[in-house]
Every structure is written in structure tokens, then in C-alpha cells.
Amino acid sequence: MIPALAGQDWSGVLDVLPEPGYVVLPGWLPAGQVAELRAELRALDAAGAFHVAGIGRGSAQQVEQRIRGDRIAWLQADWPAAAHYLALIDSLRLALNRECFLGLAEYEAHYACYGAGSFYRRHVDRHADSADGRHGQRVISTVCYLNEPGWPADAGGELVLHPEGGEALRVVPEAGTLVVFRSDNIAHEVLAAGRERLSIAGWMRTRD
Ligand code: OGA
Ligand code: MN
Asked: What's the CA gap between 13 and 105, in Å, rounded?
């Protein structure tokens, strides 16, 4: 383990993930690391590593565009900035296993780029179709924002969480904010942004 990672204090996250099932951590990732990830994202995009995101098996791309409009690239362990991010999140996965016995075996994550006007309609991350082995066992969702500091108040692009029986919560995609929530029961959506919106979205999964 990278020594600095041992110092991550996840107790506030562990306390609230069962109920209400979500937590927002503004300023979680230091600006320097956000900048490194953003630079890596941009270099990968320039190199053609991104593709239009899908929503599951079998749906036509046209249908998907009406549901989500982001472009994505799955994180690879040999991308340096991504590897550091994966190590940070892995310390949360291990804490959840240790303290909450969730049996989270894996973490998958992608860079996401929403162009101006793109959105992601309301959904839950655990796919109902568990025959799709890739996604059937998603337990915990994470999103971290990689925008330049100072996301304008009128730029849209908020993540809106819709907890069951609770009030909706709007999260501004400010650089370095980490959002962690349950994949099974927290519906959420991404509102259309007036400008490019950069993030890493990821999911902890049990083994199939
Ligand atoms: C997703 C998602 C939220 C966000 O990729 O499944 O809900 O704020 N992303 O980018
Ligand atoms: Mn989602």
C-alpha cells in the first residue's frame, strides 16, 4: 500500500452508507491530484481512448443517447494518475469489507466526459438484469469530479440524488468532491451541463 493512503479516515462514510445510503465529501481529492487526473483524461481523449457510453445490452445507440450522453474510458491500472486514484478508493473498499462485511471483491471505474448539453436520466446503478455478469453485483457507487476549480452556479450539470422516501439532494460537480452512495436503492440523475463536465464514476462489486 502507498503509505499516505493508510491515513485515509473513512469512518464518516462507513457510518452513513447503510442509512441514509449516501455521502458527499467536498474537497476530498487535493487540487494537485485532480489536475493530474484531468490531464490524464485529456491526453487519453486526444489519443482516442474514449467511446460513447452504453446503458446495457441490446439497446440501440439512438435510444441510449436519450438516456445518457457521456463519453467514457475505463480506468487502466497502468495509467499513472488513474492507478493512484484506484489505490485511494481501494482503501475505502477494504474499510467497507472490514467494518461492514460487504464482501466487495472488485472496483471498476471510468473517466467520463459530458459535453455541453449532455445529461444522464434518472437511474439506479445496480442493473436489474443480473444475467449481465459485469454489472449485476454493483453494491457501492462513487463519483469524483475533475473539473477546473470553481464550477459556476449557473452551469448546471448537478448530480441529483433521490433517496427513497427522502428529499432530493443536488451536488455541484466541484473539483475534488467525492460522492459515495448505495448502488441498489439510490436513484440519481445528471442534469444537462452548460459546459464540459469531467468525472470518474466507479462501482464496487461482489464477485458473481
Ligand atoms: C453514472 C452516474 C453521476 C455523475 O455514471 O452512473 O450516475 O455525477 N454518474 O457523473
Ligand atoms: Mn449512476
From this structure: 19
The tens digit of pLDDT for each residue in 153-171 reads: 999 999 999 999 999 999 9
Q: Which residue among 25, 41, 70, 120 is best mutated to probe the pocket of ligand 1, counting the most ligand atoms within 8 A of its Cβ?
A: 120
pLDDT tens per residue, range 54-102: 876 666 666 677 888 899 999 999 999 999 999 999 999 999 999 989 9
- What are the domain boundaries of the chain? 21-52+65-205
Using CB distances shorter than 6 Å, the residues near ligand 1 are 112, 120, 125, 143, 159, 188, 190, 199, 201
Looking at the CA of 184, which ligand is closest?
Answer: 2
Which of 170, 199, 200 should be mutated for ligand 1, with most atoms under 8 A from CB?
Answer: 199
> Among 3.40.120.10, 3.40.640.10, 3.40.50.2300, 2.60.120.620, what is the CATH number of 21-52+65-205?
2.60.120.620
Tell me the CA–centroid distance for residue 3 and ligand 2, in Å. Answer: 31
Q: Which atom of ligand 1 is nearest to the CA of 141?
A: 6
pLDDT band with cut points at 50, 70 and 90 for residue 130: low
